[in-house]
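Quick illustration, no need to memorize.
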Amino acid sequence: MEPISRRARLALPASLAASVATLACLCAAAPGAVAMPAPEPDVGPPGQLVHPSPRPLAAAPSEQPRGEWPLQPRPEVAEHFDPPEVRWGSGHRGADLRGRVGQQVHAALAGTVSFAGRVAGTPVVVVDHGGTRTTYQPVLATVSRGDEVVAGQVVGRLGWAGTHCSPAACLHWGWVRGETYLDPLLLVGAAPRPVRLLPL
């Protein structure tokens, strides 16, 4: 079998390319057959892809943990999670929960406090859960970096400086895996269902 040219391989649809790759493996196993070379990505400068795959800005982890509401009783959601289409774009990288100044803020999941301080003047608490971390702001911490917390444990009290709901107070609650923002309402089973348009 004659090897397919690189230009031809790049023009193949993904499903057809997979079939060709499978056929190449079968042919290579036959006596006297010529193995087909594997497709190569387009490359620019050394080590850099010309058209790298976009990195997801929002996703859900493969194993969905169950967490606690950070404000109790169950609060009203003032604004839902709305990630940007591109990493540098505008969006809402968490959920805003209506509350009152001084209200206790609870850890959504068990973990280790990785940050308790101020960022650009806003008090923030971050709890690391291993593969993910939850963020809470504006929260005046009652815990310190390195503290182990259990789900539902108080980590601070809701402040006002840095609120997203001015003049009212609300908690901006985030959930992050690496640099990918997740919808924290998934932790409590309250994420809105996507709207699906049906044909007329």
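The mean pLDDT is 75.
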